[in-house]
Amino acid sequence: MSKAHPPELKKYMDKRMMLKLNGGRAVTGILRGFDPFMNVVLDDTVEECKDNTKNNVGMVVIRGNSIVMVEALDRV
Q1: For the chain, which ranges sit under pLDDT 70?
Q2: Contacts of 24 (CB under 8 A, 6+ apart)
Q3: Which of 29, 30, 32, 76 has the least C-beta neighbours within 10 A?
Q4: Which CATH class is domain 11-62?
């Protein structure tokens, strides 16, 4: 079994991020933490639904294997 290497996300800490998730879901929030499996903690998170509604969900933990794409919304 291969050893997990930590993702290169340190420079994105405390920056606003948009994450595209599997199933066509998307969330934006401030990156507060991550682990070697790319599980991430986002704060002030907003879930963007397919019907263009937005739900404020606060602080969330997102499992790394559900993340499809990561985009920084703040200047790094």
Answers
A1: 1-2, 4
A2: 50
A3: 76
A4: mainly beta
For residue 4, report the phi and psi dihedrals to the nearest 5 degrees: -75, 135
Residue located via tokens 């499996």: 37
Tell me the DSSP string of 12-60.
GTTSEEEEEEGGG-EEEEEEEEE-TT--EEEEEEEEE-TTS-EEEEEEE
Q: How many CA atoms lie within 13 A of 39 on its CB side?
A: 6
Q: In DSSP terms, which residues pair with 73 in a beta bridge?
A: none
CB half-sphere exposure, 52, CA atoms < 13 A: 0
**Residue ranges of domains in the chain:** 11-62
CA distance 16 to 2: 31
Q: What is the amino acid identity at position 61?
A: V
Nearest to 21 by CA among 71, 56, 57, 75: 71
